[in-house]
Specification:
Length: 265
């Protein structure tokens, strides 16, 4: 779409000033500064899809007419599906989930008729490289990890478990695959869960953080976890293995807190 927009702009200028000599703006053709040049022209664009919102329908209509006068585009109406995310807008707020994507995932890996589980991973589960374990197909394992990582866009409750399993993609074992299958089973029993963003005038920024001490059996590093709420709305979350080896639980938690406040700032 970007190339089409450029061509439309160039053609319109040439038609208005046919005797002028034009200098090509190289920034719009794949160089490193291209994103900045585009954002100066259009604040936010993802390939050929633009999501915008406003506090009333009048503003939406005004923006639609403004953009329609600049670019060739079509309006799809109220947002309900975007890049695998399903969005449902109700009077009380907005719900975001990936039920359709997850059902396709269950069907792909033949987990439609399995029993469910209450947790994505056992509290006593601690994975290592398992050098004596039986190897499994890397392509299948990596495909499952990649699919589940995309699902964390609406399911922060599995972010830690998937991140842990993703560390062993280079040489996966049966013990790693068993944990991944358990995550799928857990999701099957909680497919009605979603992110809910209620209508509210509370804009207090709240953040929570925690860390496990030396949870990684390979190099004894701890893992930081954090979530940030704007009012009652979850806006950011994540888990990450710490860069250094903490010498105590307090040190691991301080490192996690520092990472959380960096994210907030």
């Amino acid at each position: 779409m970007w190339r089409c927009l450029l061509n439309n702009l160039r053609v319109s200028k040439i038609l208005n000033f046919p005797n002028h000599v034009y200098k090509l703006d190289k920034a719009l053709y794949g160089l490193k500064q291209a994103p900045r040049a585009w954002y100066e022209r259009l604040f936010k664009i993802y390939v050929d899809d633009i999501i915008f919102g406003a506090t009333n329908n009048g503003l939406c209509k005004y923006f639609t007419e403004l953009m329609g006068g600049e670019f060739e585009m079509s309006i799809m109406g109220e947002l309900n599906f975007f890049l695998g995310l399903q969005i449902k807008q109700i009077a009380e707020g907005i719900m975001i989930h990936q039920q359709k994507y997850f059902k396709e995932l269950l069907k792909k890996y033949n987990r439609e008729n399995t029993k469910t589980n209450h947790t994505p991973m056992g509290t006593a589960t601690r994975l290592d490289e398992d050098p004596q374990g039986k190897s499994v197909d890397q392509t299948t394992y990596r495909g499952m990890i990649g699919s589940l990582l995309y699902l964390t866009a609406s399911r922060p409750d599995i972010a830690f478990s998937i991140g842990l399993c993703a560390r062993f993609q280079s040489n996966p074992k049966e013990s790693h695959l068993t944990v991944v299958k358990r995550i799928l089973i857990y999701l099957k029993g909680t497919d009605d869960m979603c992110l809910f963003y209620p209508r509210s005038d509370d804009f207090m920024l709240r953040r929570f953080t925690d860390a496990d001490y030396a949870g990684d059996l390979v190099n004894r590093k701890s893992t930081s976890s954090m979530v940030q709420f704007l009012g009652y709305c979850l806006v950011s979350w994540g888990t990450k293995k710490q860069n250094t080896v903490a010498l105590s639980t307090a040190e691991a938690e301080y490192v996690a807190a520092a990472a959380c406040f960096s994210q907030v700032l």
